Amino acid sequence: MDREELLGLYQWGAGTCFRHPEKGTIATILVKTIHPRGEGEREIRACRDCVVGLEDIRREAAARAGSDYEPGHVGEGAM
User: Fold this and answer.
1) For 20-29, b where at least 16 C-beta lie within 10 A, e where not — what string?
2) 74 in a domain, yes or no?
3) Averaged over 32-58, what is the pLDDT?
4) Which stretches of 1-79 are assigned E, i.e. beta strand?
5) Rounded to an integer, what distance in angstroms lies between the CA atom of residue 76 and that of residue 11?
6) Number of domains making up the chain
7) Helix ranges restricted to H, 1-79
8) What's the whole-number mean pLDDT along residues 48-73?
9) What pLDDT sits at residue 77?
């Protein structure tokens, strides 16, 4: 599966990447929703480069564990 096919597995929306806030509002996926005390709800979002990196981590972890890797399941925003 190439990069574009992998990224096509996700639903993208405008947001700020948790690792690259300096990029401003860009296409991101929802990774996690957190509820900091007294601050309501906050979304943790990831950009295209971070999603590819997170998928690489998932693929390597699956290989080490001897389990199957299925792309497209990073975070809450996975389709």
Assistant:
1) eeeeeeeebb
2) no
3) 95
4) 13-15, 26-34, 42-46
5) 11
6) 1
7) 3-7, 48-65
8) 96
9) 61
